[in-house]
Amino acid sequence: xxxxxxxxxxxxxxxxxxxxxxxxxxxxxxxxxxxxxxxxxxxxxxxxxxxxxxxxxxxxxxxxxxxxxxxxxxxxxxxxxxxxxxxxxxxxxxxxxxxxxxxxxxxxxxxxxxxxxxxxxxxxxxxxxxxxxxxxxxxxxxxxxxxxxxxxxxxxxxxxxxxxxxxxxxxxxxxxxxxxxxxxxxxxxxxxxxxxxxxxxxxxxxxxxxxxxxxxxxxxxxxxxxxxxxxxxxxxxxxxxxxxxxxxxxxxxxxxxxxxxxxxxxxxxxxxxxxxxxxxxxxxxxxxxxxxxxxxxxxxxxxxxxxxxxxxxxxxxxxxxxxxxxxxxxxxxxxxxxxxxxxxxxxxxxxxxxxxxxxxxxxxxxxxxxxxxxxxxxxxxxxxxxxxxxxxxxxxxxxxxxxxxxxxxxxxxxxxxxxxxxxxxxxxxxxxxxxxxxxxxxxxxxxxxxxxxxxxxxxxxxxxxxxxxxxxxxxxxxxxxxxxxx
Length: 486
Known about the structure:
Blueprint: H1 2-43, E1 59-60, E2 63-64, E3 83-90, H2 109-114, E4 119-126, H3 138-148, E5 152-157, H4 163-177, E6 186-189, H5 200-213, E7 218-223, H6 224-229, E8 240-244, E9 258-265, E10 274-280, H7 304-312, H8 332-342, H9 364-370, H10 395-408, H11 433-441, H12 460-473
Parallel strand pairs: 3-4, 4-5, 5-6, 6-7, 7-8, 8-9
Antiparallel strand pairs: 1-2, 3-10, 9-10
Helix pairs in contact: 4-5, 7-12, 8-9, 8-10, 10-11
């Protein structure tokens, strides 16, 4: 009897093991199928009825609105508007008819190239990573641009209302540009009305970081109203800005690399109107000229945009060819030279103002200019009467010079921040206190782990970042701590 019972138990255990293994296999199969289904659902094509329609300041239910625009020629008012190259941006809206129909007439890219257009930004799609939301003319447009050697970048119209949406939209772009040869950045088109109640900075950060981590430069597109009132978080300084304002001048006061000035341009090879754009200066990652490359400035580095901006504007040069030196400490002579370049390097007559600043040095003109009575950026050491060109500059010394430079430019410098929240606030010297309070209030100095490190020596990455923040915000109104605004 015992033997029979043991056999029965053995049989039951064997059956149980088989059933358990079968359940595990079925569970694994269900998991794999679930993952495959999830991936498929994100890229599978649907009918046109499922396509979303854009709704923004320039679209209504997916149709382009006929915008009223100011007539007249583009007016270059100052060095703030340095128009260097002329380009267009296009989508499926710029072709006639639908692909596969007798009426279909795509862009004639050979005629576009012959018209003298310098670059193009192609819409690759819109919204999340579904093939039905690829731009219908994307494959044709990108293939023609590459065949004809037309420099191009891409943009994706965003519907993102969450980080999950933004991640899917980034994957949408990356799927389409894989193995393509972009000359210009990937742009995140932020204009959809439904996004206004969401955390725009977080959404943009999710999208842009994913693009950067994949090895591509990135930017954000929005109109003037959005840039002035909604996209004001400091994070937007990390990426290129493309500003849309249909006008004869661009009134945006911050740093930007591209300006969409009209939706009613005409270009041979394109039926009807087309968006026209100007490149502003030669920002890095835009085309060949000015495409600065440093082996020690990598995609994703926190200072990358600032280093490339300072280089493309001629404010800071590399230590040698291909080397920026982000961790290298900055000398007082170097910072005086940076401010001098920011002012256009005006001609000066040498004066022996400081015993340690002889004539003929790379910094001589800069120091004499900066210490002149009309500029007043530099005073030198009161104890010795020297300037100390070879001394490492401290963060508070740099802030004081920028503060004085803002006063020289007659920009408002009255706003002040409370420094008590920083653990090392007492380390700020009396002569630098007002300047540091102003710099913190204006976001030039943001601190690190609750410290502002006023006596620390500034490095080149920090300098480039502070300079970029200064230039970006200098023409914007000061906002007190209890106020909000652009």
